[in-house]
Amino acid sequence: MILYHGEILNNSLQDKIIASLGDELNNTLAKGYFPSPFEVLEAIEVIYQEVINHKYDNIILPLLKQYDIPESMFLHYASLFSPESLKRKIEIELGDYLNLTSKLDNSTIRERYPLGVLFHIAAGNVDGLPSYSVIEGLLSGNINLLKLPSGDNGLSIMILKRLIDVNPRLKDFIYVFDVPSTEVSSIKKLADLSDAIAVWGGDLVNKAVREFADVKTKIISWGHKVSFAYVDNYVSDEELKALMHALASSEQLLCSSVQGIYLDTDSLDELSVFAKRCFDIISKENLKLKPSPVAAKGKNALLFYNEILERKSAKGLYLDNGVSVIVKEDYELEASWQFRNLWIKRLPHEKIVSVLKKNHDHLQSVGVSVKKENIALIQNLLAQAGLSRITKLDQTSRMIIGEAHDGVYPLKVYSRIVEKDISDL
Q: Is 401 part of a structural domain of the chain?
């Protein structure tokens, strides 16, 4: 299904709508109006109140059950859409841009404008993420074209349709299309209509976008990122327990999910002892949670046994009941197989920058637990290497209103400054 002028329509109309969309977008821009952040906030507040008052439990509760998400966790994330939280986000991210009408000199003023038309190519690893991307575009005043990810369950269209119902003025600023990734021609047409493309995806998605996007179109990449943990041998079992529970709960599917653990050592013997300790802990935490999908467990088992065959030895390889831990002798950052698999590697702190810096575009979050006297040093080294979020061990996926995304503020990235000569006014 697609969303066009506030109406949910059949996909069969998609090509016709895209063909005529350019004139409509230009007409909207020519009116000189774009929604203010607080106008969008007022519409979101209505939906937020409906959510916390259980109006959408028939949709939300099955999703929580499917992904084994506690209702308390959902309510925490929902609170990020409260009026107080979003107001704080707007104030922090836009700051002086918020009501910018300041003078550069006696004849020139500055004003904030949206980029214009944002094309969102959304990922499907988090339900509701596509609509959140559009909301950030709205908060900065942009017209938003959204390409739904494959397998979208309809939650994004429901949220955005409801926004328009609450404030019909937003209907000219929200368009949702269900275009398969194989329909490159349609995607390119949407990209050509846009001033910027917000891409949520891995290297292959970003590469594909750069190939079909016009050189004049700005590309804003929000992924794919790799997150990990960094510890020394003083890390407690309780901290590791919390970490294992967090990564197992997320199935390591988020950019902020821990994929593996670096140990501050250059000793392979210490690494092996630590890996066995981690395996014992994650095995116990695994039993407390809903099992991973059968297909994922089967795939990981095949990958695990292939690892054994390639190494000609099972030393440093642990597998049981769908979870696995692999000791690796190299230092290189990498994604895991996900679904409760993690790698354990050594990385003495003296090598943090030299090892990680080359991955700066893929770095996001790191959970840290080291001796108190070393925390400041380690945090600084990780920041110099390119990490943008440094947290406690189990908090890499936490969300705090007003925090940066991949080291920048989206609302500011989605805005521009226009300087006007007023000497003749």
A: no
Length of the chain: 425
The secondary structure element, H or E, covering residue 299 is helix 294-311
298 and 371 share one domain: yes
Inter-residue contact 229 to 206 (CB < 8 Å): no
Radius of gyration of the chain (CA): 24
Residue 397 forms part of a structural domain: no
Predicted local confidence at residue 313, as pLDDT: 46
DSSP string, 32-100: T----HHHHHHHHHHHHHHHHTTTTHHHHHHHHHHTT--HHHHHHHHGGGSHHHHHHHHHHHHGGGTT-
CATH number at residue 287: 3.40.309.10
- Could you give the number of structural domains in the chain? 2
Contacts of 294 (CB under 8 A, 6+ apart): none
CB 349 within 8 A of CB 381: yes
> What is the number of alpha carbons within 13 Å of residue 167 lying toward its C-beta?
21
Task: From 111, 36, 115, 141, select the one nearest 418 (Cα to Cα).
Answer: 111
Give the structural domain span for 208: 2-223+406-421
Of the candidates 273, 266, 260, the residue with the CA atom closest to the CA atom of residue 396: 260
Whether 199 and 69 share a structural domain: yes
Q: What DSSP element (H or E) covers 17? A: helix 14-30
Q: What is the pLDDT of residue 312?
A: 47
Render pLDDT for 195-238 as a digit per residue (tens, 0 to 9). Answer: 999 998 778 888 888 888 888 999 999 877 899 999 999 999 99
Task: Report cis status (omega within 30 of 0) of the bond before 5.
Answer: no
For a pLDDT cut of 90, what percent of the chain falls above it? 56
379 with 390: CB under 8 angstroms?
Answer: yes
Residues 209 and 230 in one domain: no
Q: What is the mean pLDDT of residues 181-188?
A: 89
94 & 39 share domain: yes
Q: What DSSP line would sit under 134-166, residue for residue? A: HHHHHHTT-EEEEEPPTT--SHHHHHHHHHHHH
